[in-house]
Specification:
345 residues; alpha/beta; 9 strands; di-copper center containing domain from catechol oxidase; oxidoreductase; 31% helix; two-stranded antiparallel ribbon; three-stranded mixed sheet; globular; binds CU-O-CU linkage
């Protein structure tokens, strides 16, 4: 059975999971997923207009008002609705704290972090999140913003996430609000660097994570998650470690044990900035493929699948092979400069 070679969740297995060593959380859907019929993903009609994700710091008031409105509608829905903001956040919690077991395994939990599923899973997640947001507003070309933290102009928390009700968030470190420059090397302590030095350091780290330290797929994508009973891995790729993990912690509140909300997997997606952060991660996957001319070709990886709700409350099964080409998904990233490309340290 070829299906046994791929990785996928057992939908009937959802259980409590550890959000932190000392915190058991329950992020499982209230409805029993096993009784939910799913459909297989199909590509959007190629005649639909392409949606362009743009840098958060360049978007205008009209865009911000629209995005804020869509998120506020999402936040107003009850927990029973899988489109609700909290259910969206809990979807991340489920897959990122190991609340599902892997199919065909005896209680081996499935965690998409620290492995090659990091990029494709988050791409799927954002894709459906964006479709749901779009369905709430009258804008057929609405697309998520990306937090352009790899460029000096984007190296602060984008303003839209500070002063708009649905997009701002309490559980953050206020000492990191603008004009504070992000610290790619953040490990809980302030770098003490001035803004220019910090920018230069970030750019040099970016060069390493995207170019010199990421010459092959294993280095960039992380540990190959092969199926089987013991199938487990915890080996993040370059970009997942830095700046993905470090910026999660940098945004979260210093008053919480793991700098929640952004600092811990179970709570990270409760902060609206999560989606713009991951939009840039997703963009970097595109950039890396362009720079290195590499794509995913492993059948076990391409055939692996996960489940998401769409804007019609329909559960959809999506394969990794469905999301390797974003043109087929109907979106693109605005081309912006890559100021780190010539920053060999
Ligand atoms: Cu699933 Cu940025 O984490």
């Amino acid at each position: 059975d070829a299906d046994k070679l791929v990785t996928s969740p057992n939908l009937t297995s959802c259980h409590q999971s550890y959000g932190r060593d000392d915190l058991l959380v329950d992020c499982c859907p209230p409805e029993i997923a096993a009784t939910q019929k799913f459909i297989d993903f199909t590509f959007p009609d190629p005649s639909t207009p392409q949606r362009v994700r743009r840098p958060a710091h360049l978007l205008d008031d009209d865009y911000i008002a629209k995005y804020n409105k869509a998120v506020s509608i999402m936040k107003s829905l009850p927990y029973s609705d899988p489109r609700s903001f909290r259910r969206q956040a809990d979807m991340h919690c489920i897959y990122c704290t190991g609340a599902y077991n892997k199919k065909y395994s005896n209680n081996v939990s499935l965690n998409i972090h620290g492995s090659w599923f990091f990029f494709p899973w988050h791409r799927m997640y954002l894709y459906f999140h964006e479709r749901i947001l779009r369905s709430f507003i009258d804008d057929d070309v609405f697309a998520l913003p990306f937090w352009n933290w790899d460029s000096p102009d984007g190296m602060t928390i984008p303003e839209m996430f500070l002063n708009h009700e649905a997009l701002s968030h309490i559980q953050r470190d206020a000492s990191h609000f603008p004009p504070r420059v992000v610290d790619f090397d953040f490990k809980g302590e302030e770098s003490g660097l001035g803004p220019e030095e910090q920018v230069e350091k970030n750019l040099a780290m970016m060069y390493h994570q995207m170019v010199s330290g990421a010459k092959n797929t294993g280095l960039f994508m992380g540990c190959a998650y092969y199926p089987g009973e013991g199938g487990f891995c915890d080996g993040p790729g370059t970009l997942e470690l830095v700046p993905h993990n470090t910026l999660h912690a940098w945004v979260g509140s210093s008053f919480n044990p793991q700098r929640e909300d952004m600092g811990a997997f179970y709570s990270a997606a409760r902060d609206p900035i999560f989606y713009a952060h991951h939009s840039n991660i997703d963009r970097m996957w595109e950039v890396w493929m362009e720079l290195h001319g590499k794509a995913i070709d492993d059948p076990a990886r391409l055939g692996s699948y996960f489940y998401f709700y769409d804007e019609n409350l329909q559960l959809v099964r999506v394969k990794v092979s469905d999301v390797v080409n974003i043109t087929n998904l109907g979106y693109a990233y605005e081309k912006v400069d890559l100021p780190w490309l010539n920053k060999r340290p």
